[in-house]
Amino acid sequence: MNTEMNTDQIAAAVVTAIENIKGQDIVVLDVSKQSALFERMIIASAESTRQTKAIAHNVQVELKALGVPDQGIEGLTSGEWVLLDLGSIVVHIMQPAVRQYYDLEALWSAAADQRNRRTS
């Protein structure tokens, strides 16, 4: 990972790469208190499998150009839900029906609420 860029800068670059391919409903979640594996989760919607794959590819290309190669990618075969592992950031690019079904935003928000209740 590029040591010159911090997590927030990488997240901003990911958001830009998603926006460049017309990704929609982009959400950046700070999950650093819920996960020891990564600090941010970025979730975006794409209208087709082709767009989902194109967004994932653009994120890979743009981040690699900045010195931040991905550590893995899953879901390119079906294209309904593509996950990119960027180390401190995990990117989910999903078609709207899949995103609504799994509702990762609510799942991770519930985890944060549970953690906050335990520490209060």
From TrEMBL:
Its subcellular locations are: Cytoplasm
| Gene Ontology MF: a single term | ribosomal large subunit binding
InterPro entries, per database record? Iojap/RsfS/C7orf30, NT_sf
Q: Does the keyword Magnesium apply?
A: no
The UniProt entry, under Gene3D superfamilies, shows:
Beta Polymerase, domain 2
Keywords carried by this UniProt record:
Cytoplasm, Repressor, Translation regulation
Q: Which domain of life is it from?
A: Bacteria
Picking any one GO biological process from the record gives:
cytosolic ribosome assembly
One GO cellular component, as annotated: cytoplasm
Q: Tell whether Cell membrane is among the UniProt keywords.
A: no
Name of a matching Pfam family: RsfS
Function description? Functions as a ribosomal silencing factor. Interacts with ribosomal protein uL14 (rplN), blocking formation of intersubunit bridge B8. Prevents association of the 30S and 50S ribosomal subunits and the formation of functional ribosomes, thus repressing translation.
> Subunit structure of this entry?
Interacts with ribosomal protein uL14 (rplN).
Family, similarity comment:
Belongs to the Iojap/RsfS family.
Protein name as it appears in the record: Ribosomal silencing factor RsfS
Species name: Sulfuriferula nivalis
